[in-house]
Amino acid sequence: MKKRQGASKRGDDSSRNSSTTTSCTIRNVQYGPYGECQKNHAAEIGGYALDGCREFMASGEEGTSLALTCAACGCHRSFHKRLMEYEVVCECSSPSSNGT
């Protein structure tokens, strides 16, 4: 019994000679809203406990010191996980077949 090499389901060898070029770029990196609070409220006693705040909500208007304090849990905005939104663009090109 002969052992088969390769994983070609078609059985042709044309896929071995072709090459594919892929390039990926990241575009439109934006910082979105702040997510759940990561402050450890039990750190003083050596434990680990989160308060369950799921999203940062500013206590005051933008530009004031209250804009950095969460209305739900009272923590500073830096304790909340920053959510990032970005777009990944991948371009895949393969050589065109010339019929030979």
Question: Helical content, roughly?
Answer: under 10%
* Total number of strands: 2
Total of helices: 1
Order of helices and strands: HEE
In short, what is this structure?
The protein is mainly β and 100 residues long.
Textual characterization of the structure:
The protein is 4% helix and 31% strand. The protein is built from one helix and two strands, in the order αββ. Strands 1-2 form a two-stranded antiparallel sheet.
Q: What keyword list fits this structure?
A:
100 residues; mainly beta; 2 strands; 31% strand; disordered N terminus
Topology:
Blueprint: H1 14-17, E1 21-37, E2 80-93
Antiparallel strand pairs: 1-2
Region (Disordered): 1-21
Subcellular location: Cytoplasm
Organism: Stephania yunnanensis
